[in-house]
Amino acid sequence: MYDMILKGGTCATLAGIVKTDVAIKNGKIAAIGDIDVSKAEQVMDVTGLHVLPGVIDSQVHFREPGLEHKEDLATGTAGAALGGVTAVFEMPNTKPSTITAKDMADKCRRAKDRVWTDIAFFVGAAAENVENLPELEREQGVSGVKIFMGSSTGSLLVKDDATLARVLASGNRRVAVHCEDEDRLKERFELVRGGAPVSMHAQWRDAETAVRATTRLLKIAKGVKRRVHILHVTTADEMEILPQYRDIATVECTPQHLTLNDEAYDRIGTRAQMNPPIRSQHHVDALWEAVNQGVVDCIGSDHAPHTLEEKAAAYPNSPSGMTGVQTLVPIMLNHVHQGRLSLERFVDLTSAGPCRIYNVAAKGRIAKGYDADFTIVDLKAERTITDKWIASRCGWTPYDGMKVTGWPMSTIVRGNVVMHEGELIGDPLGTAVRFAECL
After folding, report:
1. How are beta strands 10-13 and 50-53 bridged, if at all?
2. What is the 3-state secondary structure (H, E, C) of 332-356?
3. Which residue, of 316, 335, 388, 430, is most buried by count of CB atoms within 10 Å of its CB?
4. Active site residues
């Protein structure tokens, strides 16, 4: 007997997107094909729906510990599950920063029995933990090392080439990097010091700020032969450079940089403020070209919530960051509906891609023996994204009022239905994501 059969759906399998059933046993995919419903304890009728491999959001900031008034692990993963996401990788810029084994153990302890999706945590690179990074990157529940070349504070900021080279030379797993040049940021801050329209955000943190950091990173990574993952790439210039480094570098884009342009500053104000910035349509078009040319390897939301009260501060005192984990799937499915990318490419960017980049064990595809993680969607469902729908503690989205076509209907994590038709189901059952390099 199987535990569950997903019956009658159109499934994104390795053989293509085909109408087939999927059987689940002990949290794993047990069979694919025309399966007798009498052989299961439970049958979910998914006729008319698409069954996709579970979406993985490989860049989220859930703010716990230390900043729980913005978000915590429970509310963040609740939003993920409601949005069709089955696993998340959480970033280290909490209070305290996640830079020691003790910090990592604390996050894992906090996640136990509280998270709705599977989860892994990045350890932050800092000058004081360089020697420990080879051990830290192999701790249970660690998705890898994260470097902030700009836009961070204290010891998490790795702005100089010498420290960057030391970090990259310490360890073996792929390193995720926020590429903005800190020295240029400081120089150009004079453009907004004392107050400015929020539309100046993309002028202060201009394309050259990103290009300088990315170019420096790629040169050093090549020299020490370390694999790197460039987070939230935003510029046409970077997308011209990155194809020259495909042996060591993978590339992420966010839904917001593919969806919003600099007109958003006038429309939604500081809700559009994030780092790196929302840019002009020229750069948006270049990102889509990079998606179509295969330069982009994955989509991550960079979910980074702040309260509306904090966002209401006069720029540049307003914090950068926006919600995104709950809207990743509907925003990208709307792009599928509008013909900007195929459903197969959506699956590659949101499931298979993160698994290739980080060498995730037994996730990211509908195949026998893999974790029974599924994002079940209605490609024809028309919905309006609203602040009210957002489960994040901050309670807002930059897409408030946006109409989309394509919506997550159910979220299944290791055979457990955690969301169905807009409602969370049962208890939080998320556990640590496993990585092949650390088994």
Report:
1. parallel
2. HHHHHHCCCCCHHHHHHHHHHHHHH
3. 430
4. 302
Per-residue pLDDT reduced to its tens digit, 159-210: 999 999 999 999 999 999 999 999 999 999 999 999 999 999 999 999 999 9
Give the tens place of pLDDT for each residue, 289-302: 999 999 999 999 99
Q: How far apart are alpha carbons 4 and 276 in whole angstroms?
A: 43
Helix (H) or strand (E) holding 159: none
Phi then psi for residue 224, to 5 deg, are: -100, 5
Rg (the chain; Cα; Å): 21
What is the distance between the alpha carbons of residues 200 and 273, in angstroms, rounded to a whole number? 10
Q: Is the dihedral of CA 272, 303, 246, 165 positive or negative?
A: positive
| Contact (CB, 8 A) for 436 and 361 | yes
pLDDT tens-place string over residues 83-104 = 999 999 999 999 999 999 999 9
* 337-to-53, 216, 374 alpha-carbon distances in Å: 19, 38, 20
| pTM, to two decimals | 0.98
Q: What is the pLDDT of residue 49?
A: 98
Instruction: Give the whole-angstrom CA distance, residue 63 versus residue 304.
Output: 8
In a 10 Å sphere around its CB, with 0-12 CB exposed, 13-18 middle and 19+ buried, how is residue 269 labelled? middle
